[in-house]
Structure formats: structure tokens, C-alpha cells
Design brief:
By secondary structure, the protein is of the alpha+beta class. The protein has two domains: about 5-170, Jelly Rolls (Sandwich); about 185-285, Homeodomain-like (Arc Repressor Mutant, subunit A), CATH 1.10.10.60. The protein contains eleven helices and ten strands. β5 and β6 form a beta hairpin.
Length: about 290
């Protein structure tokens, strides 16, 4: 028996000339099984559940991301009506937006990937967010869509292009890093640090995971980041602490712990060396600019 299906139209969602829309949806059992006349990238932000497709049902969980092409019927469902909610971030965009992105990326591998989106040859894909990069991108997309300002359309298109580039890379490198020694690219090492900076990371651990020797890793950090391994880790942690100071009401001691510092004196010392301000001064400056 064929199940009832709706068709969602982009005109219902798109605002002004952006030709795209971003939302955060708590899935339920009443949402319609549907297809749509736009392209969609969906990210599981919280919980777990099921993704019902035309000929299959896939179990889904936090950190998974999906590319859903034009006209493909689907719907997300939670595991139970009274269980933990399934929250999905959606970025939908018109095929008409792709020529603009293709022109910007002209001559690159990204342009070829966008052309496959445009002509419909890129089919459904599901990947895992290994280092929370997509979670951060969706956060920026949602914020910009919800609180538009000067240049918002360009900003949104730039974030969408970044999302698509990262998605293409994730498809190309679909095997996650494991505890078994393997020769990954240094880019994978940097992504791993971006996702695990709050842990007690050591150069020895990175060497075991990546397959590079500790000495070679030190050389790579110097060559590609201009910093030693230790200073690079501190830079990432302080960057993330600045974001938390700007966007959350958390206590400074809580933020220090969240980004990997167990000693407040060390956190204050490194923060001031990196920014010229104490964490308290930094928060005050961004919340009460002159």
C-alpha cells in the first residue's frame, strides 16, 4: 500500500533573495512523509530515531548528516513518542542558487561537486560528523538565519558553500580515525585536535592515532600552523573558550574545564598571553562594547 505523501515547496520557506532556509526541528509522529522541490542537508543535533526513505528505514543518531536530493521522499521519526526528542537541523536551498555558488568556485573540485547537485547526478548520501565541524557550521547558519543583518544573504551563501565543501571532503574521507596506527593526512590530525581539544591530548597519543612519529608531527605543526604542538593546542582551547565566553552565561571556571584546563591559574595565564585580557575582561568587553 502506497503511503500518503506531500510535496514541500521552497517558496513557502525562502525569505527575500537568499533562496535558502535553516531551521531546527523537533521531530514527531505527525510530520508528513514528503518530498520537496529543493535540496536539503539535514544534521541530527540531538537524540536518535529513524529516517524513513522511499525503500528503506535507517536508524539515526546525533552527529549523522544527510544530503537529500530533489524529489526524494523521506521523513524523520523519533524512537518513541515519550522518549528522548529527535532534533534535526535542516538547511534547505534552491537549485537556482547553485549557479551562483558554482561561479564563485569556478574551476575547482567544489564546482564539479556543485554541478552534480545541480544536474541531479549526486544521489542521497549519509555521513558521520567526526569532529563536530558540521555542528559548529549549523550553529552559525541557524544564528545568521534567525538574526539577519547587513549582508546576511552573502553570509548565508558563504556558510552554505563552506558546508558543502566540508560535506564533499567528508564523503572523500569517510573512514574515521581509530586507535589503530594509520597514515592519515596532517589535515586529519588537525581535525582530530579540533574535536578532542577538551581531552588530555598528548603528542604521543596523536602519533599513535595518526601513524606519524612524534618528531615528524612536531615538524608538521611548525610547518603548517607556525606553532609547536603545545602552543597549537593552547590556541584551539583559547579560541573555543572565547566563543563560550561570548555565547554562554557559564562561569569562567566551568568554561576553563570545558576546554581542557583543570587549573584556573594556567587558564588565566594562557588566556591573557593569547588575548592581552583576562577571561573576565574579555567577556565584559564583548558584552558591553564602548
Amino acid at each position: 500500500m502506497k503511503r500518503p505523501m506531500e510535496t514541500y515547496h521552497g517558496d513557502t520557506f525562502f525569505q527575500d533573495d537568499t533562496l535558502m532556509y535553516v531551521n531546527r526541528n523537533v521531530e514527531n509522529f505527525t510530520g508528513s512523509y514528503h518530498n520537496h522541490d529543493f535540496l536539503e542537508i539535514a544534521y541530527i543535533a540531538e537524540g536518535e530515531g529513524f529516517h524513513h526513505l522511499e525503500n528503506s528505514v535507517q536508524r539515526v543518531r546525533k552527529g549523522q548528516m544527510f544530503y537529500i536530493p530533489l524529489g526524494m521522499p523521506h521523513v524523520f521519526r523519533p524512537t518513541a513518542a515519550n522518549g528522548k526528542p529527535l532534533i534535526v537541523n535542516n538547511c534547505i536551498f534552491s537549485v537556482q542558487l547553485l549557479p551562483k555558488l558554482i561561479a564563485f568556485a569556478s574551476g575547482s573540485e567544489t564546482a564539479a561537486f556543485l554541478e552534480r547537485m545541480e544536474d541531479g547526478s549526486l544521489g542521497y548520501h549519509a555521513i558521520m560528523d567526526r569532529h563536530d565541524r558540521f555542528e559548529r557550521l549549523f550553529g552559525s547558519l541557524y544564528e545568521q538565519n534567525a538574526m539577519p543583518g547587513s549582508g546576511s544573504a552573502i553570509y548565508l551563501h558563504t556558510l552554505l558553500l563552506q558546508l558543502i565543501i566540508e560535506f564533499n571532503r567528508a564523503i572523500e574521507h569517510s573512514q574515521p580515525m581509530t586507535s589503530e596506527p594509520q597514515h592519515h593526512s596532517f589535515h586529519d590530525v588537525l581535525q582530530y585536535v579540533e574535536g578532542q581539544y577538551m581531552q588530555e591530548l598528548t603528542l604521543t597519543q596523536l602519533a599513535q592515532i595518526s601513524g606519524f612519529s612524534e618528531r615528524h608531527l612536531q615538524r608538521l605543526f611548525r610547518r603548517y600552523t607556525g606553532q609547536s604542538w603545545h602552543h597549537y593546542l593552547q590556541t584551539v582551547r583559547i579560541r573555543m573558550s572565547r566563543e563560550l565566553l561570548r555565547t554562554t552565561p557559564d562561569k569562567i571556571s566551568t568554561i576553563a574545564e570545558k576546554v581542557g584546563y583543570k587549573d584556573m591559574h594556567s587558564f588565566h595565564s594562557v588566556f591573557k598571553r593569547n588575548t592581552g585580557l583576562t577571561p573576565g575582561q574579555y567577556r565584559s568587553d564583548v558584552q558591553h562594547p564602548e
